[in-house]
Design brief:
about 375 residues; alpha+beta; Alpha-Beta Plaits; DNA polymerase, domain 1; binds thymidine-5'-triphosphate; binds magnesium ion
Length: about 375
């Protein structure tokens, strides 16, 4: 039932996955809500099924079965428009309890294979399978085992992407839906991305897509020809991360929910700057953003990190660890400013971006049990 495609077929020489730095698997269920409905009601199988709002109201399509997608029906489309596209489509109101039950089953299956799992939504997850519970070296084999296990338990199909980072794995899982498996070896990342439309890159939405089209650029390969500074002109503060993505680069870790080990916020200045006052002002703003998240999660942080990117795009990070965890804007701001003055070349070199981050996070419980040590600061 499952079909494997690989960009390995595009080139003859590929690296063995055993040499990959990381093995990341992205799993995404096919037409999730609609598939659950078709599974539970045989009369709906093979038919255009639309889960979402009523077609005679102002509702929207949550998702559509693959049969309905042949008529051009897509998620977020007004249900009335979907009805016009396919008059005989069967409209069903969502039943979240059922979807949640299927979602729980899938996520508990992942636990049998991996320890580092990031649940991205009800129907998708990233698994870092570099090391896995079955000690299987071949990520493709492991992916197939998981897909088959999901089908055996839920009678639902999933698509999978295997790559060396999250971004490529996610794009890969979408290539051969439904029930597909796509592998992207690292050396083929750019050729894999080359012919994709630019909208496939996270961070590029329909508005930005239009902007890019104005420059005569349609594909990721065409976009990849721009220089880093052209990216920043086009995308502002997103420029650099989009630049990395179009070149297949993504170092972000697979992070289990609620356990992100750091909080950070950064911003690129409209013009490169050398004066301290606007830098300190920016650091205050960034510290406020961080404190908001610390407060929301009811945690404190012990390590404060300042990131500086100079005008020539070289970047450094400097950290300091406090003996007592903090969630005070003033403390975070003061430490970051101190790092700026003492540990960077600010004031001497032009700076294009500043970032503030906190890590070494402790929960309220840990704060109570932890014994306070000397109130001293030390550098990492
Ligand atoms: P998706 O994984 O984006 O879509 P899907 O599983 O229906 O189809 P695909 O095979 O392309 O992955 O989203 C998962 C579920 O989330 C989807 O079944 C319904 C719900 N959803 C909405 O309610 N509204 C939306 O706009 C989207 C995109 C999804
Ligand atoms: Mg899905």
């Amino acid at each position: 039932m499952y079909n494997v495609s690989s960009v390995e077929k595009m080139k003859s020489q590929t690296s063995a996955p055993s040499n990959w730095k990381r093995k990341i698997l992205h799993i995404d269920m096919d037409a999730f809500f609609a598939s659950v409905e078709q599974r539970d009601n045989p009369k709906l199988r093979g038919k255009p099924v639309i889960v979402g709002g009523k077609p005679d109201g102002r509702g929207v399509v949550s998702t559509a079965s693959y049969e309905a997608r042949m008529f051009g029906i897509r998620s977020a489309m007004p249900a009335a428009q979907a009805k016009r596209l396919c008059y005989h489509a069967i409209f069903i109101r969502p039943n979240f309890e059922k979807y949640k039950a299927a979602s729980d089953m899938i996520h508990s299956i992942f636990e049998n294979y991996a320890t580092v799992i990031e649940s991205a939504s009800l129907d998708e997850a990233y698994l870092d399978i570099t090391k896995n519970k079955l000690n299987i070296e071949d990520p493709v084999l492991l992916a197939q085992m998981i897909q088959q296990n999901i089908y055996a338990v839920t009678k639902l199909t999933a698509s999978a992407g295997v790559a060396t980072n999250k971004f490529l794995a996610k794009i890969a899982s979408d290539i051969k839906k439904p029930a597909g498996l796509t592998v992207v070896p690292p050396e083929h990342a750019e050729s894999f991305l080359r012919f994709l439309p630019v909208i496939k890159i996270p961070g590029i939405g329909p508005v930005t897509e239009k902007e890019i089209h104005k420059h005569g650029i349609k594909t990721v390969g065409e976009l990849a020809r721009l220089s880093k500074s052209e990216f920043c002109d086009l995308f502002g503060s997103w420029g650099e991360s989009i630049y990395d993505r179009v070149h297949g680069i993504d170092d972000s870790p697979v992070e289990p929910a609620g356990e992100s080990k750091q909080i950070s916020s950064e911003e690129t200045f409209e013009n490169d700057i050398i004066q301290f006052p606007p830098m300190e002002e920016k650091i205050t703003e960034l510290s406020e953003v961080i404190v908001k998240e610390l407060e929301e999660r009811n945690i404190k942080a012990r390590t404060i990190t300042l990131k500086v990117k100079y005008a020539d795009f070289t970047s450094i990070t400097r950290s300091r660890t406090l003996s007592m965890p903090t969630d005070s804007t003033a403390t975070i701001q003061q430490e970051a400013v101190r790092l700026l003055h003492e540990k960077t070349e600010a004031g001497k070199r032009l700076i294009r971006l500043l970032g503030v981050g906190v890590s070494n996070l402790v929960t309220a419980e840990e704060q109570i049990t932890a014994r306070p040590r000397e109130l001293e600061l030390f550098d990492l």
